[in-house]
Amino acid sequence: MTWKQHGRRARKGDAIYTVRKLLRRNKEDLGEEQLTVLKAELEQTGTYGKQIHAGRQAKELLRDVLHLAVTRAHTVPDRSAISAARYRFHAHIADHAHPPELLVLAETVEHWWDGIETYLATGITNAASEGNNRLIELEARNAFGFRNRTNQRLRSRCATTRRNRLEAHPN
Fold first, then answer.
1. Backbone angles phi, psi at 86, to 5 degrees
2. Do 72 and 133 have their domain in common?
């Protein structure tokens, strides 16, 4: 948005530059004064600032949906609470659909809703397998490919179990 408005990256003195760190923080980590500064600076920026603020609000509404997931205490979330949070997210997108990124976000959430709903109900994700897959791909990239499939398997296994070996033998 800053690039569209100024034709360059944000610089010191620009309203968006003033609040760039506040935009990265979650709403529960911001004080009332910080929220006021954030909103005032973005409104001062004009249309683009309002679009940035709408995007930040959409992010927080999506986080509200994800916070309803099963906790360690195994409290299953109320389906009506999930529906209400999902509705608030989509209603916000419908009201602020000017930045196309918000529409893409809503479409992505809808496309993956079955998986999101499963996560909310069970608290189970595939994060561990995705993390292992990332490590395996990184190891293969670092080695510029393998000629021997056995070596590839051993190096991949070594890379994905490194953390477990460090915890077992901390020196």
1. -65, -40
2. no
- Determine the Cα–Cα distance for residues 77 and 65; give it in Å rounded to an integer: 10
Domain count, the chain: 2
Q: Smallest Cα–Cα separation from 16: which of 55, 59, 68, 63? A: 55
- Which has the closest alpha carbon to 99: 43, 62, 50? 50
Which domain does 107 fall in, by range?
A: 2-122
Read off the tokens for 106: 């809503």
- Tell me how far CA of residue 122 lies from CA of 78, 97, 110, in angstroms: 12, 32, 19
What pTM was estimated for this model as a whole? 0.70
The answer on 112 and 131 residing in a single domain is: no
Q: Does residue 6 carry a pLDDT above 80?
A: no
Which helix H or strand E contains 43, and what residues bound it? helix 32-44
pLDDT single digits (tens) 61-110: 999 999 888 766 667 778 888 999 999 999 999 987 677 889 999 999 99
